[in-house]
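Researcher: Here's a chain I'd like modeled. Treat it as a single chain, no partners, no ligands.
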Amino acid sequence: MTSKLGSIDSKFRYIIVAAKRARQLQAGAKPMVGAQGRKFTRIAQEEVSAGLVKFELTEETKASKRRGSKEGKEKSH
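Model: Modeled as a single isolated chain. Structure tokens:
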């Protein structure tokens, strides 16, 4: 069975990345999966699950992770 998180290390990060991608879709970005008439949040979740959304951890995120904080920041591309 395939994990819904794909290559993402936590559920929290999955939600953050998907939310940022949903905002990009709302702003006019083209979907990377074949989707018609569905909500941006669902399209973003499908894209993240498929590994189509690239993201990187910033130095601030890495430092927060070492401290055990969930207040880090991710940049999605």
